[in-house]
Amino acid sequence: MNDSVITVENLVKTYGQIRAVDGLDLAVNAGEVFGFLGPNGAGKTTTIRILTMLTRPTSGKVLMNGFDMLARPIEVKRGFGVVQQHMSLDRELTAWECMELHARLHHIPGGERKSRIEELLDYVELTAEARRKVQDLSGGMKRRLQIARALVHRPKVLFLDEPTVGLDAQSRRRLWELIRRMNQDGATVFLTTHYIEEAEGLCNRVGVIDRGKLIALGSPLDLRMNLGLVTVQTMTNGKVSYSFFPDMESATGHIRSLGPDTKTIAVRPSNLEDVFVEITGRKVEEES
Amino acid sequence: MRPLADIYSVWWADLRMLRHLWFRFLVTSLVSPALYLVAFGYGLGRGTTVEGTKYLEFVIPGIIALTAMNTSFSSAGMKLNVDRLFYRSFDEMLMAPVGSVSLVIGKSVIGVVRGLVICAIFVVIGLALSSMSITPLFVLTLLVASFLFAFMGVLAAMMTRSHQDMATFTAVLLTPMTFLGGTFFALSQVPDWLKALLYIFPLTHASLCLRAEALGKDFPWVSFAGLVLFTLFFFCLSVRAVRRASI
Q1: CB contact, 8 Å: B80 with chain A?
Q2: Would A63 disulfide with which of A7, A43, A45, A138, CB 3.0-4.6 Å?
C-alpha cells in the first residue's frame, strides 16, 4: 500500500520567465485515490500534462511504476491510463471502435482485444451502446466510455482530470461508484477535481498546489484537523469571516465571546473547501 | 515497439472513419479537380497547344499532380489539425506507447490513400480523354508526391495553433503552388528568373515528372530526386514536430 507508483522530484516547468511548476516534490502510493487540487494558474494543469507525457519538463525527475519518464517513455506510457477533462473521443467512430483503437495502440493481441472490450463496456454499462457513434451518446455515456477506454490496457495508474465536470448529479454519483470500484480492483487513481465533496468522498490523500509548489498534503481528515474540525462563520459590519476550532466546545466558547456587532451565521464541521480557501486564499470553484 | 503494427493502428482509426464517410469524401475531393479540368482543359485551353501537345493532354497530368497535393495535404492535415486542437483526440495517440515515426507515417497514410484514390479516378478520366500513358515511374512519382504532401499536411497540422493558421498555411503555400506549380502552363513560357523561383515548389517537380511520363517524354530525374528530397525533408520536420508535442 505504501510503495510509490508516482514519484516526482524537484519538477520544474518554465515558460519564459514564468515558473508554472516550481520544484514540485510528490509521491503517490500504490492503491490510493490521490486528489490533486489547486486554484487557476497554480500549475495543476501543467503538472498533469507532464505526468501524462504531453509536456516535457524543464528539469526534475518523474518515476512512474519504477520507470524514468524521460529515459523510458514507452514503458511509462504502457503503465497509465488517462481520462481527460475534455471529451477526447473520435466523434465519427462507434463506442466499440474507440475501444478497439485504444487496444490496438496499446498492443493488445487480437484474440484478447474482443473479450476485454466486451468486459469493459459491460463494466461501465455501455454494452447496448457499443455500435452507436460517439457523437450520438450522452455526456455521461461519453465520460464512461472514456473511462472504459482508459482501462483497456489495464493500467496501474489512472489519471482522472475533472472526470465529473459537466455531468448531472445522477451521472456524477454513478461515476463516483465506478471510480471506487476501479480503485478496489487495484488501480491507483490520480484525480483532479473542483468538486469538494468529490475530493472528500473519494480521496485517501489530497495534495494542494499553488504557485507551482505543493503547499499541503495529507488525508482530508488530517488537513481538516490541522485547520480545525469546526468552522464558525460570522459577520461583522457586513464582512464575513471564518474561524476554525478543534472541537465544538472551543467553538461555542468563541461564539460567547463575540461582541454585539458580530453575528454568527453558521457553526458547522469544516471541510476541504475551508482548507483550500485558508491556504490558497481562493475558492475551489474559481479554479476552473 | 512494433513500428509496422503501430503505423497500421494509427491508420486504422482514419480508415474506419473513411468507411463511415466515404461518399462525402469522394464528392468533396472530386469537385475541384473536375472544375479545373472543365475550366482549363475545355474552356480556356480548347484548341491550343503547349510545347507541341494539345492543351487537354498537357493539363491532365498537371491536374493529377495538383489533386495529389490537395487531397493528400488536406486529408492528412485538416483532420489531424481538428483532432489535435478541437477534439484533442490526438492526445490519446501521443499518450500511447507509439513512436513518433509510426505516428507521422500512420497519420500520413490516410492522406496518401485518399490522394491516390482520387488521382486514380482522374487517371481513368485522363486515359479516356487523352492519349496519356501510365508507367511504373508515373505511379511511383504519384506515390512519392502523395507522401510528400501528406507529410506537409501533418507538419502544418502539428505546427499551427489554430484552424485559422491552417487556412493561412493553405493560402500562403498551397494556393501559389496550385497556380504556379507547373499545372496549367509550361515552365518554358515564363522568364528564367521566375522559372528558377518556381522550382522551389514541390508541385512543380511532381507536375514535370508526371507529365513527362504521361506524354512519353524524357523523365526528369533531377526533379524526381528533388521530390524525394522534399519528401524526406517534410518527413523529418513532421517527426520533429510530433516529438516536440509529447515526451
Answers
A1: no
A2: A7
